[in-house]
Specification:
The complex is a heterodimer of chains A (342) and B (280).
Chain A: E1 3-7, H1 11-21, E2 23-30, E3 33-38, E4 64-71, E5 74-76, E6 84-89, H2 91-105, H3 111-118, E7 120-125, E8 150-155, E9 158-163, H4 166-169, E10 178-179, H5 182-197, H6 207-216, H7 221-227, H8 236-239, E11 247-253, E12 260-266, E13 276-280, E14 283-286, H9 291-305, H10 307-310, H11 320-324, H12 332-341
Helix pairs in contact in A: 6-9, 7-9
Chain B: E1 16-25, E2 30-37, E3 50-55, E4 59-64, E5 75-80, H1 84-90, E6 97-104, E7 118-123, H2 127-139, E8 147-153, H3 162-170, E9 175-180, E10 190-191, H4 195-199, E11 208-212, H5 215-228, E12 235-238, E13 254-255, E14 258-259, H6 260-263, E15 266-268, H7 269-272
Classes of the chains: A alpha+beta (342), B alpha/beta (280).
Chain lengths: 342, 280
């Protein structure tokens, strides 16, 4: 498909025009960090962000989402979503959304996810600043992002806008785009290559080798006890992860005490009751009782269990878990390199 | 392994309404429901498959179907009163409704059991999901060879399906043996854990064995079956886990890389024996 150029000073009016008709979610500043939020105006957009606190999956797989409505008569479907634009997504988060697409389509297609996904146009953007915990260049490097509709790369004087789908093409009529020159396309290519070159953290082995060695370390309790020693079981690593998709389901009553919604809420396998079952008479059993077992489960999920299904690891190297973890023990770089050391 | 769940609806979380045609309080905490789909359609499932059972406003719980698809006019579930959802379910009575999603997951692989000797070892509530297979075998008895059923309960008062037990004691179609951990004054039968029944029987090595019970039971039963030398691919376990979605999404039922709701709940023992998280 075609590649366009948007001058720097035309970006605000492009985004403003989009905002007139469509909900646009993009990176905005929140004190000294960044979050994906619904834009109220174009000048809130911060394409120079390094990483957001929570991944953009929340625009498609929100923290709480109704699955059904209930009333005394039974259940009914909730409505279909409105179109939205997810603007300024870094390539690693596109890769994560590709994985969620696979998980929610595999076996039983989850229309509650897929309806949101199909209603979303994703404009990816180049990485202008890199967080010091990022390792996106060396994890699953052969897995390319697929799910975006267009890719916006900041270069000198403006943005190169690469169109990947009809949805991505449909946006250009809202801005003062012109065809990109060969030099501009080359500059964009170089800018994206530079982001990979500058990525600060590294893992040093192939996906296959890591998957095999980490899986083989399953029974090495001393390693997991050591790695998880300071774990609070707070679940921050789950909550901040762009590829985590486990959820709880609860019924919530409306004020009329007759109707309500069945809704899902993000859950996390690090939380201590995640795999607990009731046996009756107040007795329970927990299939991952120890923090080290839960810690290990997460690492297995990210590095090993899902590789066959995904064709790569279930980790994209964003660094959010490393940034968010209070005792700083969740960083996959350190965990993987520790295990690979032997 | 593929998933046999019947979820063709647009919304995989949408339950179907069932009329409760009969209820029976089996014990102080366990209640049996006989259900029919309210839209009149026939409920198709395999022995060992599970349902998500719900009451609007309270939530869903995973429950194994407790009757065989050979009994076509209705199907049974048994619910133990444990938490909020099961309490709401067990407050329902004949003429009222419950809601189900499913059938979900993979039940018993009947092709691996037909024309074989079959031994079912059930402990406590483990009799409920295995009852789907017990009834199936009894209804198609000529398709199976020797059929033994061992059932263990904590006490006589906690025995489930007492009418069935009485019929099975008399039936020439099944070699039914039972034990209780603790007897009461009226109990004249076996006392002891369920492995004592294995010890007093001659179990041929080519027997296909189905185990369903509390997590602790598997380890001790497996020690006995290993002593006999039964190949692990001929042993089938019916596992329970916390489940929210039942369709391989929510993550709660994972055993290492397997999802109990989709890959199970019935596994051959060799599929799960090396998974540390399978038996707690």
């Amino acid at each position: 498909m075609k590649t366009y150029f948007l001058p720097q000073h035309e970006l605000p009016s492009f985004v403003s025009t989009l905002l007139q008709t469509t909900r646009v979610i993009g990176p905005v500043a929140k004190k000294h960090k960044f979050v994906f939020a619904r834009l109220a105006s174009a000048d809130e957009l911060r394409l120079d962000y390094d990483v957001t606190i929570l991944p953009p999956k929340k625009a498609i797989f929100p923290q709480t989402q109704p699955l059904l409505k209930f009333s005394p008569e039974g259940y009914e479907d909730v409505g279909t979503p409105q179109p939205q634009i997810l603007f300024g997504v870094h390539f690693y988060d596109v890769k994560a959304l590709d994985m969620l697409d696979e998980f929610f389509t595999d076996g039983h297609a989850d229309r509650r996810y897929l309806d949101n996904r199909e209603a979303t146009t994703i404009v990816a953007s180049s990485i202008q600043h890199i967080n010091e915990r990022a390792f996106f260049a060396s994890v699953g490097a052969d897995v390319k992002p697929r799910g975006h509709d267009a890719f916006l790369t900041a270069i000198e004087g403006g943005y190169v806008y690469e169109i990947l789908t009809d949805k991505g093409e449909a946006l250009i009529k809202h801005g003062s785009f012109r065809a990109a020159t060969g030099d501009e396309v080359s500059s964009a290519y170089a800018a994206n290559a530079e982001a990979l070159d500058k990525c600060p953290q590294h893992i040093y082995h192939s996906t296959r080798e890591i998957g095999r060695r980490v899986r083989a370390a399953f029974g090495r309790d001393e390693v997991w006890d050591e790695l998880a020693e300071k774990c609070f079981s707070c679940g921050t690593c789950n909550t901040t992860c762009p590829t985590c998709y486990c959820f709880d389901v609860q019924d919530k009553w409306n004020l009329d005490q007759a109707s309500g919604v069945r809704e899902r809420t993000w859950d996390g396998c690090l939380l201590d009751d995640f795999a607990r079952v009731s046996l009756g008479e107040g007795a329970t059993d927990n299939f991952r009782e120890k923090a080290a077992q839960r810690f290990r489960h997460r690492v297995m999920r990210k590095t090993s269990y899902l590789n066959e299904k995904l064709g790569g690891p279930a980790c994209v190297g964003c660094g959010r878990c490393a940034i968010g973890c209070v005792p700083d023990i969740a960083d996959p770089v350190r965990i993987i390199n520790r295990i690979m050391e032997g | 392994m593929g998933c046999n769940c019947a979820t063709t609806e647009r919304n995989i979380y949408m339950p179907r309404e069932c009329l409760i045609t009969k209820t029976r309080q089996l014990t102080r905490t366990e209640k049996q429901f006989t259900l029919q789909l309210k839209d009149g359609s026939h409920f198709t499932y395999q022995p060992g498959q599970i349902l998500e059972v719900s009451v609007p406003g309270y939530g869903e719980i995973p429950i194994g179907v407790a009757s065989s698809p050979t009994r076509t006019d209705s199907f049974d579930i048994v619910v133990r009163t444990v938490g909020r959802v099961s309490t709401a379910v067990n407050a329902r009575n004949e003429g009222e409704t419950l809601w189900i999603r499913g059938p979900l997951g993979n039940g018993f692989d009947l092709n691996k059991l037909r024309h074989q000797r079959v031994l079912i070892i059930a402990g406590g509530l483990g009799l409920c999901p295995t009852r789907s297979l017990i009834q199936y075998i009894l209804d198609k008895r000529q398709e199976f060879r020797d059929f033994k059923l061992f059932f263990g309960s904590r006490s006589p008062a906690e025995q489930l399906f007492t009418d069935d037990l009485a019929a099975w004691r008399r039936s020439p179609a099944v070699d039914y043996q039972e034990t209780v951990d603790r007897a009461d004054a009226n109990w004249a039968g076996n006392v002891g854990v369920i492995t004592t029944l294995i010890d007093r029987n001659e179990i041929p090595r080519d027997t296909r064995v189905i185990i369903c019970g509390p997590p602790i039971m598997y380890r001790f039963v497996m020690l006995r079956l290993d002593a006999i030398g039964i190949p692990h691919e001929n042993i089938f376990v019916d596992l329970e886990r916390r489940m929210k979605c039942g369709v391989g999404k929510c993550g709660h039922c994972q055993i290492n890389n397997l999802y109990v709701c989709c890959d199970g709940p019935v596994f051959s023992y060799d599929q799960v024996e090396n998974l540390e998280e399978a038996f707690s």
